[in-house]
TrEMBL record, chains A, B, C, D:
It holds the Pfam family 6PGD. Residues 158-180 are annotated as: Disordered. PANTHER family: 6-PHOSPHOGLUCONATE DEHYDROGENASE. InterPro entries: 6-PGluconate_DH-like_C_sf, 6DGDH_YqeC, 6PGD_dom2, 6PGDH_C, 6PGDH_NADP-bd, NAD(P)-bd_dom_sf, Pgluconate_DH. One of its GO terms (molecular function) is phosphogluconate dehydrogenase (decarboxylating) activity. It comes from Nocardia coubleae. It comes from the Bacteria. NCBIfam families: gnd_rel, PRK09599.1. Keywords: Gluconate utilization, Oxidoreductase. Residues 187-337 form the 6-phosphogluconate dehydrogenase C-terminal domain. This is Decarboxylating 6-phosphogluconate dehydrogenase.
Length: 341, 341, 341, 341
């Protein structure tokens, strides 16, 4: 099959590479001619591209399939512009991190023009080229079926993990790493929750490792606390200088918390054992927030996922006013004077 | 009655003042002769004191009542020293912030010597002199009954709040502001949970006011966010420059969140509207931690109280390593570069 | 002044009573003639009313002031219907619990018709008649100034609480219990956060009291735990049978956690000491959710307020599927068998 | 080498199997002769055992190595009894889930007798036989070195996971799945935090999947809510009937949340798609609690890990009194009547 790709950043380019490897061809669109040329040099005849959107559309065979893989903020405008150039029967795929609300609106808006729309939540990050991308897909059955060959090439394939006990015979799409989750928006909905879980799991590791980091507190700080701070009651229990890079490594094999995130964490700690290259200002990029929003809409308690999100806000100093307020109250009722920060 | 007071800091001195006002007398012990002299000058014949513990004990009429009102860290040693000088029938009161575990141990240790022991959780802070102190008492019935006249003088009295509907006749001790909660440790247990609640309620206000503080985000920051941070989706909803000192003031009358803490908060904000005199490094002094400990021991879910405690830890930078870990993971799987802090 | 009131439920009727007491007059609109007649019998010449909206509008003197005090779900339609009957210069007040987004939309929609709009977040509940209502107001300066006499009558007045130290001279509106918070929506925004804080403070008390409730665990349950549940490590520390109604009473005077919520809690526990009349299914009515929403929009960490909201969801069984999932995982990796529920 | 094993339950027996497979021999002790006979029949000459502790000790070659693998509650007594039968130079290993405090005490108590002590936190659960056990070890260097051949056989080995980028040459112990973490208690400390992380990660998945479960709320429940519960504001966004077993399967390959826990979750959902065999009463077995304890001692904020623990408490009904209190307050200030549970 042929795939049109708008956006040849890391994710877009790697998706193109994976399908070309599998015998498909691709046409790319990007602002920078250089990116297009580089990819063409690498992939040969299977890839062409244009910085001009109209020309790009012209290079595609009808019924066209155009995958949009650009930052969420720019996706809406790009799809609008693209839709004006497409014809009935063509399909637009939003593979970025749009909010699923947008998918519902867009698919409705495109329907009268006869343009199909799929939302494909795409996980895999910088490792997608080798590891394959996990695809969570929303939209019409017929379109998903039509594009199955592409999804198969982009997804990791069944060999990427041992089969779940009890699953036999021809591997299902889910076992290959791609899934038609439901109608428009279902793909991004599932991807959104995936990222919400990711935030929670990341914080679980980060908090636990922070406890390990403090395990020498009895050795370092015993007795140094001021009257305003609680002294360590049992310093004899906090005398461990733990080697956190080695601990994350040992957990990778045989333990209950083994995971791909842990693999990456062990790698990051091996490369930078004290994390000196980081300051700890943690961004968040939408899905974590929307996950909590969806939970609140549907009255689902998410204390863990929300705590993870709020920790990111706090890491960026957003609790400062609240903290000052606490200090102001403590001074007001107890005369407590703040220690210098 | 006569009360011996060890520790003439703000709390100890104000307790002495309240009982002397009510016709009792007091004997004080303190390291600094100056503090004793000042209080004696203020209170006249009803107060004497000594910097020498033995002399102090000698000034008391048997059966002696000695209230220890010093920092929790020093209380144990002071009680040991005191116990050696007392006689069977005397009573020691720990009015500080000891962990209730200590009360159970101490009352057992003192019993063979015939020395009685009461733990009196004392709330009221710097306002206790005028407002009265709320007393939560643990220990033997007989001793509590014996010292009732003192507790009555120290506590606020029934007029400090409207009577609870349905409560009529002679006000109970609880309505006067003091309560015999149970055997040894019960007073400090109840005081401990009181402080745990205090942490939670303080954070409830602080978090809410922080939202009010950010209500102008659409006016100030709309569009300025980097690609790594989620932009404000609906800036039109965050255009309010709210006057937080005035808002805390208006809530003091008629609203559901009216409270003494709110009174203090409104006062603090009136005096320092932007809280410029605070940096937001919030101490914690034991009871909040022990409250969570007790909850965990007894399997009581305390998501709110624990979140309040952890926020204090975070305000002191204790999440830093965890935050760096999150940034390291984000870089590892997504290539995300940290924004400068 | 004259006030039109749509909705003569508890809140609406009590607002009418308070203004009539102060010499104003009122016109009411309600579906039930009976409610109108009762209020008319009580208030005499100062109150009239009609079950017919058009007739009701006809009873009002221009420029009319109509306060809408009905459930949030019905407010939008009622205001639309009302607006068709009003004239330029008239003012509509939404005193209910609308989301502030609606205020921004409505005030814009009404402006071309020359109809003014105020949103008035109203706190006070069933006690508003005697205690006064705390009013948080959004809208145009001029309208707020015009209606000041009504706000003064509805609000508690400065005597409802001691003045904040440093505040002298003529009491400000905030000291009287009403405040012009900002433009359209600002009143409901502040009321929303007020309720968010209310949720957090309520949970702080509830969690703390639950710890007190479990303080006898060592006496009751020591040793009865199964191998699958952690036994109580130190039963000697959990031997207290605490009298929770008395404890809430004692905290009302002199303690740091004294508050109106605590007054009510002590009253509820005096009337029903074991809370036998409750099952613990806790509703939530919108503002708590919107508060978290606003926090997430503006990146404000609210771990305490969100934990309080999620606890309400959990109380209604909404965590059940997640809990089953945890049990399924525990069985999968550890062979742990669930204890019967 | 030869290993003595006290406790031939699933974990103990599988450890014995793994070392025997690698050419070591084992001696077992158990209450039930049947278990010993079964294992002897399976393992042939390499395994013997006795129900009599003294006889068991007699079967071991000095210097003896005895691994104790029984429930945490029984470990202390078993070690005391064992220590009386051992000789200087022998080594006791606690491979169970003891609190690390105990290790520090025990190693000190055994030192004067010349008996060595190692604590070995052991993760792997029911899959340990095939997957290998992850071993976190505390104690003296020399003893750890001496027993390295056994640890190697029990641990998964380096092939159990791809090597971390940058790690080359002879695999370290951590890469083989075992690690000497530090002095006495360090092994159980690291295992404790491992389990704390496990709780957090489990809840992250469980909460996220619960959101997926509720994604059809707009289809099912739209409009059915009572006045006391917030209606679903945007039912059009919650129309998805998601296939959660398939979604957990698709995430296993290529996604950021791929993990061993997810593998197990997908397996559990494939076997029981609606989790009908579970009621959702989730036990906790000590380590999760101790993790929070350690965090509080060292002032480490752990909002995610604690929320996960508290959710387990709530799943067992432990929030009930707090929930009733919330309902009582709501009735008191707002007249809100509880909906039936």
């Amino acid at each position: 099959m042929q795939l049109g790709m708008i956006g040849l950043g890391r994710m877009g380019a790697n998706i193109v590479r994976r399908i070309v490897r599998d015998g498909h061809s691709a046409v790319g669109h990007e602002r920078h001619q250089g990116h297009i040329d580089e990819l063409a040099a690498e992939l040969g005849d299977s890839f062409r591209g244009s910085t001009d959107l109209k020309e790009f559309v012209g290079m595609l065979d009808a019924p066209r399939v155009v995958w949009v893989m650009i930052p969420a903020g720019a996706t809406g405008a790009a799809i609008d512009e693209l839709a004006d150039l497409l014809e009935p029967g063509d399909t637009i795929i939003d593979g970025g991190n749009s909010r699923y609300h947008e998918d519902i609106k867009r698919s409705k808006a495109l329907a009268p023009k006869g343009i199909h729309y799929l939302d494909v939540g795409t996980s895999g990050g910088v490792f997608g080229l080798e590891r394959g991308f996990c695809l969570m897909i929303g939209g019409e059955d017929e379109q998903v079926r039509r594009l199955e060959p592409l999804f198969k090439s982009i997804a990791p394939g069944v060999d990427a993990a041992p089969r779940t006990p009890g699953r036999t015979g021809e591997p299902t799409p889910s076992e290959q790493g791609w899934l038609h989750c439901g109608p428009a928006g279902a793909g991004h909905f599932v991807k959104m929750v995936h990222n919400g879980i990711e935030y929670g799991a990341m914080s679980a590791y980060a908090e636990g490792l922070n406890i390990l980091k403090h395990a020498d507190m009895g050795a370092d700080h015993g007795g140094e606390h001021s009257a305003e701070e609680t002294p360590l009651e049992r310093p004899e229990y906090y005398q461990y200088k733990l080697d956190i890079p080695e601990i994350t490594e040992v957990w990778r094999r045989g333990s209950v918390v083994a995971s791909w995130l842990l693999d990456l964490t062990a790698g990051a700690l091996f490369a930078d054992p004290n994390l000196d290259s980081f300051s700890g200002r943690v961004s968040d990029s939408g899905e974590g927030r929307w996950t909590i929003d969806a939970a609140i809409d549907t009255a689902v308690p998410v204390p863990v996922l929300s705590a993870a999100l709020f920790q990111r806000f706090s890491s960026r100093g957003e609790a400062e006013y609240a903290d000052k307020m606490l200090s102001a109250m403590r001074k007001a009722f107890g005369g407590h004077i703040e220690l210098p920060k």
